[in-house]
Write a structure and sequence with these properties.
The protein is mainly alpha-helical and 86 residues long. It has 5 helices and no strands.
């Protein structure tokens, strides 16, 4: 996942499509799965985790008005808090 993370971030930053919706929801699922036991979380160093937390917080604010959004802002913040810890 580390190899693909820059592309996944670009997909999440893109506008939603009518066929597939917003990729930020899917990225959130991958990053929130298993909390701090997530394999990608464990792979990342402190600075990388901070960058992921910043990305999640940006997505949460920038895309809060999208009708296609499936996740709640609180879910994004909880995930960002996990990535911001330790």
């Amino acid at each position: 996942m580390a190899y693909y993370m820059p592309t996944l971030a670009r997909l999440a930053l893109a506008d939603p499509t009518s066929n597939y919706g917003w990729y930020g929801d899917t990225l959130h699922i991958h990053l929130s799965c298993n909390g701090n036991e997530n394999a990608f979380f464990r792979y990342c160093n402190h600075d990388q985790r901070k960058a992921i937390a910043s990305l999640l917080r940006y997505l949460n604010i920038a895309y809060c008005e999208y009708e296609m959004r499936l996740t709640e802002p609180e879910e994004f913040e909880q995930c960002a808090t996990v990535w911001d810890s330790i």
